[in-house]
Every structure is written in structure tokens, then in C-alpha cells.
Design a protein that fits this description.
Blueprint: H1 2-9, H2 19-29, H3 35-43, E1 51-55, E2 60-64, E3 73-77, E4 80-84, H4 87-93, E5 96-100, E6 106-110, E7 113-117, E8 127-128, H5 130-135, E9 141-142, E10 145-146, H6 147-161, E11 168-171, H7 177-187, E12 195-197, H8 210-220, E13 221-223, H9 225-228, E14 232-237, H10 244-255, E15 260-265, H11 293-300, E16 304-307, H12 310-316, E17 329-330, H13 332-335, H14 343-351
Parallel strand pairs: 8-17, 11-14, 14-15, 15-16
Antiparallel strand pairs: 1-2, 2-6, 3-4, 3-5, 6-7, 9-10, 12-13
């Protein structure tokens, strides 16, 4: 928004609020002599997270932000260069994975081959940790780690940190499934598909109103009554955002005869909004920004509620613990410690349009 307003003052005309259009205007207004120098000039003005792929008549350009918050991978098929956000995209078309682009790296693919440049000042990488929790597909490998294996390890850490006396482990499909498998294995409990998902319905947390989200939950999930009736259930999900979807799923299990429902969440409480290209609710609407864990348990109507600790999440990724002064990942949605400035948020606060500073919040959901 800050860049867009600056460009508008200089005479640029926008037809959308898309970040891509802003980048195109930056390229178009650059004084660079060729497309590469103009592209570099444009991305150096960006602050935040991005993975970009651009085409010219003779070149394909890929670039990750200086901190490498978002993923971008390089592949090869029949001598041609391929750029994609995840390795599973390469698998689908039969391409060979070459490598992840490094943080702050730009690659230029032409008929002659691939050239690599680093247009930004060197910084310590801060890859988005939520890619491992939710965003990336489980059949992808991200930054050298298989996502499915990481999610199973997350579930195992969750079982160690939050044990519960129960009969079965049930995932909220599909996001909670790998973590639920890891939880069940670590806890020595049976894993059962107590909820069946309708795959013809899209995501519910990004729907615009509560009524539409609630109807989406009913259409998306159905209780497998025979598996859960008279059972003490550990319900495993990847995260809790507003809490309304969790509330409906818990009620679904209770209506199907569950004796007890203990919810375990395969991530820390989501305390703050993401400002790096993710359409999450504003911080004030996040359940954990306004409730304690005990209050959240009452709201969701579970017998107990447990979240993975931030150190447990880091351990699942092969790190000993989170380094408070120099965290290895971007984990701002859990800690409110953003790896970059938030100029748009400052501008909105200064103008009186935004009453809530994201750094000021501390609870999550």
C-alpha cells in the first residue's frame, strides 16, 4: 500500500489492489537499461515476503525475498528450466528437482542456461515456519525437509508435551492427519478416521462470514459415528484461528456420541496476523489474541486443550530450541516478532485507520 500510494502520486494508474500490479509499475517506472536491471530495481524496493516468477520474450526470472520467507524451487524437464513454489508441482509433470533457490537469490533462465544473482544485502534466512505446519503440501520437500515427516514429528512432540488419557486419536482432515499419526504413534493409541472429509468443498477459514463458514463445516466434514461413539477422543488439528470451525467440529463429535473430546493443536497459539501474503484475520479476531487457553477450551467446548510449544515446533524441525534473539524461522504468527518492518501497518496506525498494532498483541488461537 505504501509503495502503491507513492506510485500513484508519481502518475501510475492502478486497476486493482494486487501486489503483482505494484511490482509491474515499479518495473515500468524504473530507469534501468534492460529488463534485468529494471527487475532488480523493482524488487529492491519491496519489503516483506515474496517469491516471484516473471517472463519476458527471451527470459524467465525467479526471485526470493532477502530473508527467503516464501519457498521457490528450481526444476528441470527435458533441458528446460522450471520454477515452482513446491516440489510436488515438479512431480506432477515428471520434472527433476534441482534445488531450492537460496534466500535473496534471483535466477535468470534463457536458452543458454541458468544464471544466478544475489541483488540484496546478505541477511540471515527466516523461512516461514507455518509452511511446515499448514501451507505446504505433505508430499513436498521444503528447504531440505520432507513436510510429511516434519508433521509426524510435530505430532510426536505434541504427544510428549500434552499427554492425555484417551481411547483413540482422530485427525481434523486433511491438515491434522500427519500430526495425528505422529501423536498416535508416540502415545501408543489407535489412529482412526473419526471424521470424513468431503473433498469437493474448499477451505472454510477464508470464507467472508461466520454463517458461510459454519455451513462450509457441515458440508466439508461428517462424523464417522461407529469409530467415535462412547470413545474418549484426542482430536488433532494443525492450528486454531478464529476457533469457530473447531467449535463446530467438536460439536459434530459430541453429537455422534463421543464420551470426551480432548483437542491437541500441532502448533503454538496463533497470536498475531500474518502480513506476508496470507489472508488471515486481523489480530483482534484471532481467538488466542483475546482468550487464555482455559477460556479457549470453554469456547471450543472441549474437555481439555493443548498446544505445541514454540520450542517443540523447533525440535520437530531438527533445531534444539528457538533462539530468542535470532530465531531461525519467521514465526511471527506465534510470537509477534516480525522479521521485517511493517510500513503499511505504521501508515494505517498513523492515519487513524488502524487501531491495533500487531506487535502489541500477545495471545493466540
Amino acid at each position: 500500500m505504501t509503495l502503491q500510494r507513492t506510485l500513484q502520486k508519481q502518475g501510475s494508474i492502478f486497476s486493482s489492489t494486487s501486489d503483482t500490479e505494484t511490482i509491474l509499475h515499479l518495473i515500468a517506472t524504473s530507469s534501468g537499461k534492460d529488463v534485468i536491471s529494471r527487475f532488480i530495481d523493482a524488487v529492491r524496493q519491496l519489503e516483506g515476503a515474496f517469491s516471484l516468477v516473471a517472463l519476458s520474450p527471451t527470459k524467465m526470472i525467479g526471485c526470493r525475498d532477502a530473508l527467503g520467507i516464501r519457498p521457490l524451487v528450481l526444476g528441470e524437464l527435458d533441458g528446460a528450466c522450471i520454477l515452482a513454489s513446491e516440489t510436488c508441482a515438479l512431480d506432477i509433470i515428471g520434472a527433476r528437482f534441482v534445488r531450492d533457490l537460496k534466500h535473496g537469490e534471483m535466477v535468470i533462465a534463457t536458452a543458454e542456461g541458468v544464471e544466478s544473482l544475489f541483488p540484496f544485502e546478505t541477511q540471515k534466512p527466516r523461512f516461514c515456519i507455518f509452511e511446515y505446519v499448514y501451507f505446504s503440501r505433505p508430499d513436498s520437500s521444503v528447504e531440505g525437509r520432507n513436510v510429511y515427516e516434519v508433521r509426524k514429528k510435530i505430532g510426536a512432540e505434541l504427544a510428549i508435551e500434552n499427554p492425555v488419557d484417551a481411547d483413540i486419536v482422530v485427525p481434523v482432515p486433511d491438515g491434522g492427519t500427519p500430526a495425528a499419526i505422529g501423536f498416535a504413534q508416540a502415545a501408543g493409541l489407535p489412529f482412526e478416521l473419526g471424521i470424513i472429509r468431503n473433498h469437493y468443498v474448499g477451505r472454510t477459514f477464508i470464507q467472508p462470514t461466520d454463517s458461510i463458514r459454519h455451513m462450509g463445516v457441515k458440508l466439508k466434514h461428517n462424523a464417522n459415528r461407529r469409530m467415535i461413539e462412547d470413545k474418549r477422543i484426542v482430536l488433532v488439528d494443525d492450528s486454531v484461528v478464529r476457533g469457530t470451525t473447531s467449535q463446530k467440529i467438536v460439536q459434530l463429535l459430541r453429537d455422534a456420541g463421543a464420551k470426551e473430546v480432548h483437542m491437541r493443536v500441532a502448533s503454538p497459539p496463533t497470536r498475531s496476523s500474518c502480513f506476508y501474503g496470507v489472508d488471515t484475520p486481523e489480530t483482534a479476531k484471532l481467538l488466542a489474541s483475546r482468550m487464555s487457553i482455559e477460556e479457549m477450551a470453554k469456547f471450543i467446548r472441549v474437555d481439555s486443550l493443548g498446544f505445541l510449544s514454540i520450542d517443540g515446533l523447533y525440535r520437530a524441525l531438527g533445531e534444539t530450541a528457538r533462539e530468542n534473539k535470532q530465531p531461525q524461522f519467521c514465526d511471527a504468527c506465534f510470537t509477534a516478532e516480525y522479521p521485517t518492518r511493517l510500513p503499511d501497518q505504521k501508515a494505517l496506525t498513523t492515519s487513524g485507520l488502524c487501531q491495533l498494532s500487531p506487535q502489541a498483541d500477545s495471545e493466540s488461537g
